[in-house]
Amino acid sequence: MTAAGAGAASGGASLSALPGGRSGRGAAPRHHILSVLVENKAGVLARVAGLFSRRGFNIYSLAVAPTDEDERFSRITIVVDVESAPLEQVIMQLDKLVNVVSIDELSPAEAVERELVLVTVAVGPTERSELIQLVGVFGGQVVSVGADRLTVMLAGRPEKIDDFEGLLESYTVLELQRTGRVALPKLERHH
Amino acid sequence: MKLTGAQALIKSLEMQGVDVMFGLPGGAILPVYDPIIDSSIRHVLVRHEQGAGHMAEGYAMVTGRPGVAMVTSGPGATNIVTPLANAYMDSTPLIVVSGQVATPAIGTDAFQECDITGVTMGITKHNWLIKDVDEIPRVVAAAFHVATTGRPGPVLIDLPKDISNQTMEWYWPEAVEDLDLPGYHPVTFGDPVLVGEAADLIAQAERPVLYVGGGVLKARAAEALRALADRTGIPVVTTLMARGAFPDTHPQALGMPGMHGHYTAVTAMQRADLLINLGARFDDRVTGKISTFAPEAKVIHVDIDPAELGKVRVPDVGIAGDCRQVIEELLLAMDARSDKPVVRDLAPWWRQIHEWQERFPLHYADADGGAIKPQNVVEQLRDSADEDTIVVAGVGQHQMWASQYWKFEHPYTWVNSGGAGTMGFAVPASIGAKVGRPDRTVWAIDGDGCFQMTAQELVTASAEQIPVKIAILNNAYLGMVRQWQEMFYEERYSEVYLSPDLPDYVKWAEAMGCVGIRAETPEDVGPAIEKANSIDDRPVVVDFRTDAFEKVFPMVPAGASNDDIVVHPDQLLGEVLR
Predict the structure, then answer these.
(1) Domain total of chain A
(2) How close A95 gets to chain B, by Cα (Å)?
(3) Is A46 on the interface with B (CB under 8 A)?
């Protein structure tokens, strides 16, 4: 197991506050999702990550990317372990960062969450078609093919990715990289 | 108008109304030192960059205007890290401009390179690394805006040398919208509904206490506080950061709460049924063991920083807002319900408080022919001083005695390092305070340990003709640590002895261009103070050889409940306290 399983920081931040000992790697038992709009400036990710470590808040996973709407801003999706600190305190402290423009709290029930995983698996001749079948059942894809290995990709709800990972336990997983989840609010069905 | 980056920086400081800055030049900041020659800004050349930072803090604390310091890259910048941390803890508006190596050299481990924006990220309200010469006026204006609005605090501007040398077309951002701060929206006005709820809680309370913190001073709310206190008759405690926010001679003043607070201030908070926290932050030095702090009290908490509400103690009514605005709103809310009493009859509460005050006033044993008592030095300094004298302290026993025994009558007359507990703060901070208020007498009450950390800035004071007065309460020990070792480590004294006469403080003072005076016996104290007060053309240092065995009382041991406050042994008289 590497830190990759707990999500990737696309800015290359090293997150020292990752909790261990979770059963499902995609889902913290008591987690909240913060969708944080930040200024797209140098060092912003370090400011956010530094705040979490110095205040003793735990990050479960974190994903960063520029927003399409406005190139001045990026969106950081942070899954917060709310056992480490009350959520209000995390939000209030984050809001004090000058580069943080806005914070939306998404409770798991009110959000659509997705995550992507890339896995390279060692496969013998018989396992190969079996694995391709399994990937097909989950709606994933084979993205790279080697003589004795396959790299497959699956995107979906974090729980689904947990399940997929569980089923891979009977194979030899050579490398595994999860992105950490991204999330947006669920839409209202009725007006 | 074309200006170099360096010229634009100095002109931007002038546009902000800066009249003085404290600093020390070096390679990377060299271009910026050239236009200083032609500037209206006075530059005070320090002997160590830490001094520049603390001077700027002292200046800011007495004037209410941001203090400005300028240093070079690398070690120049790291030497001012302690003042930045100190200003962050005490919410002091401080602007530090640091030189940086030229942009192509950043990241190459160049000579005197240090990632100072990275280093200071956690101890500044915000910092900027300027990478485009056109950003300079906007960043300077933004830096002052961030440092002085909302909860004030320190900021740092890192300026690479090549950017200083480039040219730009001068402009000045007049409007806040031009500062490019889309994520910065400090609150000011409190929610009127919550203010009404606060007024309701006050009207119901039987044992209320106004718990006043540094936020009242930052908000320039001393007058509003006075009006609220007079209107309600509620007792007032002023924290270490709020000394002077409420006059100590006022009959409702209970003094300082906390680890070395007045017995009555500590105990009134413990027994209160309502704490009205105005701009304080439930610091551990005030609350003692938090789970046993003021167990019966409901809490109204007013703070301009919303993150303080509920950080330590969850309030019953939490109001994010500027203390002056909120107190004024509260007084209006009280006016609006004039049909009902604003407070209950507090006479029984006051009877209890007066009983504590009579039983446990501040106390120390008289010198009785022996060594000088440090508390007595503070009392004599106080009694010989004008009431608008500015008092500055370092950190330790002397700081507590200064806070306990001085009578603060006016806001902005007390300057000290509260949250960070920075030894060596007093000498440079007193110099900055005197620069900011040259019309006032400035007395630094310092310890011998503290004095040795930053004394070299008295060279700066002599050279710049800044006549501060320094009283060293010289007990030849790191006194507060010694006290803890005596009380909690079975008198096993480890690395706390300094020496009364190494260095020779009088000779050292004289070598730095100051007048040096020594007081060795209780009889020497009065004349020494009189002599010091008669000198106003140069700094004065008085070496008071004080009783090394004196301890600060009362005391709540670290981690203990405030219920377990320890008073002076003389006051025990065999009684069990509670």
Answers:
(1) 2
(2) 8
(3) yes
